[in-house]
Amino acid sequence: MRKLLHELVLADAPPGRECEVRDIMIREVEPLVDDLHVDALGNVIARRKGITKKTFMLVAHQDEDWALLITHIDELGFLRFTRLVGHRWNLLGQRVLVHGTKGKKQGVVGLPAPHLIPVKEQQRGYRPEFDKMFIDCGTKTADDAQEIGLEVGQYVTAVKHFGELANNRLIGNCFDNRAGLVAMIETLRRTHQQDLGMNLVAVASVQEELDTRGARPAAFAIEPDYAIALDVSATGDHPNIKEDLIPVKLGQGPTLLKADQHHVTSQLLNAWITSLAEKHQFPLQEVVLRTPIHFGTDAAAVELEKSGSMTTALLVPTRYFHTTNSVIDYSDLEILVQLLVKCLESLDQLAKGKD
Q1: I want to staple 21 with a disulfide (CB 3.0 to 4.6 A). Which of 13, 28, 266, 339 is the partner?
Q2: 3-state DSSP assignment of residue 220
Q3: d(CA 43, CA 13)
Q4: Is the N-terminal amide bond of 292 cis, ω within 30° of 0?
Q5: Which contiguous run of DSSP H or E holds residue 68?
Q6: What pairing do the DSSP bridges indicate for beta strands 155-158 and 67-73?
Q7: What is the CATH number of the domain that holds 180?
Q8: How far apart are the first and last CA of the chain?
Q9: Annotated catalytic, 208?
Q10: Mind listing the pLDDT tens digit of every residue in the chain (355 residues)?
Q11: How many domains does the chain have?
Q12: For the chain, what is the radius of gyration of the CA atoms?
């Protein structure tokens, strides 16, 4: 599972161009299901037949949480950009890849060295203006940039990395939401020989970071009775965060989302998941992520399609996501998979309305 997470982290998948991750998903999931297809938007939709007519959906998004778009190439060959997803204060000095017509080209987000910024501006608390930033790919003119395949409208992603910290903790790009994808794949792998109490549909969705655009049509086509989104949660276990704002911690198990700014999750599903965690002695955290926190998952999008469905979300605690360096505890991911396996083994109980 760690090897697969490493491979997925190193793949690029800005919203709307998830093909590298999609290819990995197809390779890993197709042998584990009865049917797999890719819809017009790029959602990977994999199905397994169950005993009853009810449908249970797992959804995790393919797109990553930090990406830019090229808006202009000036006469000196420097690239201007707009933010597609991610935080502006995490841009300066980042090594990036511009997805050009002749392959990916390396660059760096540039700004004048601090020595060149007037002391008075620094004393006033100098903050780099977004419109002053640019990408330097080494090109000298606009024609030079065009010659190596750089154009307006191209995606930019951060140079990917993956590593290990102390105490079984991992550092890398876009654990949002490569961690959710790995959890879904591994759960399918561990249960693919078992009979299921419901039809199961596993969806690797696209463009979650752009207002859950992929999950909506997928859910419209699937019409699930129940759905769990697999995603990440911010944590409150590092400096400068009030614990009462978000009491989630690394290494304390996955997190059950009770509500976010878009919806309140299903009480029945939450009770069923909690009872399974208690029965099998899995640590499980709970969280409400509403204002002033800005947070959402594919679950809210799935919930309202067609005649609606019961939805919730299980989250991997993650520090610093929507930046280019996020941190997870591997044990949280492993426990999430173990819990999901028990969920799929207990779908007959859910179908009968039992916890």
Answers
A1: 13
A2: helix
A3: 13
A4: yes
A5: strand 67-73
A6: antiparallel
A7: 3.40.630.10
A8: 29
A9: yes
A10: 999 999 999 999 999 999 999 999 999 999 999 999 999 999 999 999 999 899 999 999 999 999 999 999 999 999 999 999 987 667 888 999 999 999 999 999 987 776 667 777 776 776 777 778 899 999 999 999 999 999 999 999 999 999 999 999 999 999 999 999 999 999 999 999 999 999 999 999 999 999 999 999 999 999 999 999 999 999 999 998 887 889 999 999 999 999 998 899 999 999 999 999 999 999 999 999 887 888 889 999 999 999 899 999 999 999 999 989 999 999 999 999 999 999 999 999 887 764 4
A11: 2
A12: 21
**Same-domain check for residues 17 and 117:** no
Do 152 and 214 fall within a single domain? no
CA 59 to chain centre: 11
CB distance 133 to 109 below 8 Å: yes
* Amino acid in the structure at residue 255: T
User: Which of 71, 67, 66, 65 lies closest to 134, judged by CA?
Assistant: 71
Are residues 57 and 84 located together in one domain of the fold? no
pTM to 2 decimal places: 0.94
Q: Which two tokens stand for residue 204?
A: 């690797």
Residues 144 and 212 in one domain: no
- Please, what sign has the CA dihedral across residues 1, 340, 314, 13? positive
End residue of a domain, out of 127, 158, 189 = 158
Q: Tell whether 61 and 73 lie within a shared domain.
A: no
Q: CA-CA distance, 258 to 289, in Å (whole number)?
A: 8
Task: Kindly state whether residue 58 falls inside one of the protein's structural domains.
Answer: yes
**How many CB atoms sit inside 10 A of residue 64's CB?**
32
Q: Which of 64, 208, 303, 305 is catalytic?
A: 208
